[in-house]
């Protein structure tokens, strides 16, 4: 069983030296346990935070332990009556080819139906990132028909879902993404009304100018994935009583300072700004997954994946995700 361990904690930007590839034998199953062969590993921005030792909303990832992370795969051996060989499952198996899972605790391992939804989508649009987009949009932004919703990292796993759900609710939807290819995908494939390549507008003045053109009626809802100058520019265009779902601030995950240029705008615009962690809202997951699963099964919700091949490629692919080299949900394919 090939595994990737966290070898050391990064200072600033992580490197491949922070990870170590090892091989260990798969242990014999005990009663209640299931052996899962992983087909895909999920790589997610939150993993950067767990590589640090400092205080955060997530527990730090232990050193010399398998990198924690979401996985989908197939049961290949079972000593648990609820799981049969051949079942497709989603879990938190980590960066390794096989995981021994104590499946006696409810929710540790979930069976999934791959007849209408591909297995990998349970790590993306019909999984944690999809529910994240759903929660921030539906429960925090709560958009009304005709309102303008803006989302950053718009081509990504979370952002792509946010925009499509907002379009389905009758909003004008504007994305921000890095580069012309991502922007073309966001408008032409995902159906957003406009997408701004923020790299073309590197300072606050030019970016807020671009937002003014794309959002002629101002901004009512903003789904924040990035932080920094993008947030400042959105705030300059925010309408009275606008809502911001604070989902992620990836531009600061390596410790970059992120001052807010003009916090007085929160007062002036009577804005609601609310942070959230999707795993603390398990009560909404069934409702969210129902809409997301139906959307993917019928083709109404589209998604895209960046797939790295083989366990050894995981660290490099993860470093790429933090720099926007991914185009859609970043996965590692093992089988
Ligand atoms: P994505 O698929 O969106 O990939 C990350 C993207 O972030 C990159 O593709 C890149 O897109 C963008 N990015 C990276 N660095 C920068 C930068 N310095 N400035 C601007 N953009 C950057 O990842 P996810 O969809 O999985 O996650 C999106 C966000 O949601 C993250 O911030 C993540 O931490 C957060 N999140 C929060 C959760 C919660 O519970 N609160 C749960 C899940 C995710 P581009 O090239 O377009 O810039």
TrEMBL record:
Coiled-coil ranges per UniProt: none
Pfam family, one: ADH_N_2
Residue ranges of every copy of the Enoyl reductase (ER) domain listed in the record: 15-332
Family annotation (SMART domains): PKS_ER
Oxidoreductase listed as a keyword: yes
Chain residue ranges for the region called Disordered: 1-17
Gene3D superfamilies (alphabetical): Medium-chain alcohol dehydrogenases, catalytic domain, NAD(P)-binding Rossmann-like Domain
Lineage, opening ranks: Bacteria, Pseudomonadati, Pseudomonadota, Betaproteobacteria, Burkholderiales
Annotated keywords: Oxidoreductase
Species name: Sphaerotilus montanus
Alphabetized GO MF terms: oxidoreductase activity, acting on the CH-CH group of donors, NAD or NADP as acceptor
This protein's name: Enoyl reductase (ER) domain-containing protein
Domain of life: Bacteria
